[in-house]
Amino acid sequence: MEQPVPPDARRVSDADRGMVAGQLKKAHAEGRLDLDEFDERTRKVWEARTYGELAAVTSDLPDVRQPVPWSRSELVPEPVIQPTSEVARRPRGVGATVMRVGTGAWFAASLVNFVIWVIVVFSGGMVYPWWIWVAGPWGALLIAGYILGIGRDSRS
């Protein structure tokens, strides 16, 4: 019969090493570790192969959560702080920025062409409204993009 492996002898993952390295970084920022000790312990963390070796690196630090072998789903997630609408807006995606820039460029180009056409009409008489061929196709593509949802925030 195989004997179960004790928890301290189980192998760690890179995610576990990264979590402990982050805890060491926090301890260094709080002044609990000097730079040389932080460097030495961080090297030990990335060389660690078992949970026991990871626990030894942070055993003298207060408030350090050790990675728990085989129970990732049981870890309590950190609370998520929701920003208020006055403080922060959700960042827009790349598609939204592209659509805003494209719409602004379309509006500017269409307006310039329309103004030139109006000046020509008032100075020389009625002229074919050629500016529609500048504004129309580009505007149709923008409308199609908005209808298809390009640039819309998919998280809402």
Question: Would you kindly provide a written description of the structure presented here, covering whatever features stand out?
Answer:
- The structure is a single chain.
- This protein has 156 residues and is mostly helical.
- The chain has helices at residues 14-29, 35-47, 51-57, 94-124, 131-148.
- Helix 1 runs antiparallel to helix 2.
- The protein starts with 13 loop residues before the first helix and ends in an 8-residue tail after the last helix.
Layout of secondary structure:
Elements: H1 14-29, H2 35-47, H3 51-57, H4 94-124, H5 131-148
Helix pairs in contact: 1-2, 4-5
Keywords:
mainly alpha, single chain, 0% strand, 156 residues, rod-shaped
Mean pLDDT: 80
Overall 3D shape: rod-shaped
Number of extended strands: 0
* Helical coverage, percent range: 40-55%
Q: What is the first-to-last residue Cα distance?
A: 54 Å
- The radius of gyration computed from the alpha-carbon positions, rounded to a whole number of angstroms, is 31 Å
Strand content: under 5%
Provide a count of the helices: 5
The poorly predicted ranges are none
